[in-house]
Design brief:
The chain is mainly alpha-helical and 86 residues long. It is built from four helices and two strands.
């Protein structure tokens, strides 16, 4: 499964290569206005609340979207537990 790293990729994949169709698909999935989608692309991320919706739509096309595309960062790695001295 290929990984999606940028909002522009989301638009092209969902529009099957056509950015105008891709924006329309994102508009339908999110229920937002055209200006919102334009702003998200300019900002380089979608709102976190749409990660699941967009991620599921991309999976239908064989892609996996990184959480960073929606401004989410993975949780920090937990430090390894040290073994107790006997």
């Amino acid at each position: 499964m290929e990984v999606v790293r940028k909002p522009e990729q989301v638009i092209l994949i969902l529009g099957k290569g056509d950015p105008i169709k891709g924006r329309k698909v994102v508009l339908e999935l999110t229920g937002q206005l055209t200006q919102h989608v334009t702003n998200w692309i300019a900002e380089g991320k979608f709102p976190a609340r749409y990660w699941l919706t967009l991620s599921l739509a991309l999976r239908k096309h064989g892609y996996r979207m990184l959480p960073s595309v929606c401004g989410q960062e993975p949780p920090p790695a937990k430090p390894a537990k040290r073994a107790r001295a006997s």
